[in-house]
């Protein structure tokens, strides 16, 4: 059962139906799920299908992704389900929008994932006008989060998520939770239409730290959520955590009033994330 003092929404990061069922049973609730090409490719259902029948043709692959998303949506009819477009460095905004319109019709509770690139932000501006809910992904910097806010002005409160990836910063010896702190602080000057979805949460400590910071949403791997649930779903105090062994990320004093493409959008870690997603997806295609 959901703790009364839990303000943060809890999402599962993955495409494994059995994990969804297990977490629902353990917690008694689950607020959403985030899928992407990598976790779809690695899920047991997909691995077994490839082992049995070989790789997919493109239409069959999209049908398999659609079916998986629909299965998750049935388990979480009141939750938010993120579906990611295929995008590499050369994918244009119109190409992303075409996918977004199709994916948005798969389920009633879809949030479409665009990467935080110049083309992804252009796609987001148009998608907001069309009433498509978005999860802007592969965020690694505060300026990228500012650009997301600027690109999606006019969206309803909660209609947009921004997904800062903390685990990949910790892999590099950098305090990824500083990015969450900084974005939450920056967004205090805004209207609340963008919610901070702390992502790439790999450990129980990272999960509980994000809770302590008061992030709007956390999406975490199965083991991190399972550990939290097994421990009784504690809500720790922020003073419990010590990030001093990691390199800090300083706060930047940024206005949210600039055009979205005026911010420093490019980031090597965003590029690397795109390449990984593309590689995992393309490996499934004949």
From TrEMBL:
One of its GO terms (biological process) is carbohydrate metabolic process. Signal peptide: none annotated. The keyword Cell membrane does not apply. SUPFAM superfamilies: Aldolase. The keyword Acetylation does not apply. InterPro entries: Aldolase_TIM (IPR013785), TAL/FSA (IPR001585). Gene3D superfamilies: Aldolase class I. Keywords: Schiff base. This is Transaldolase.
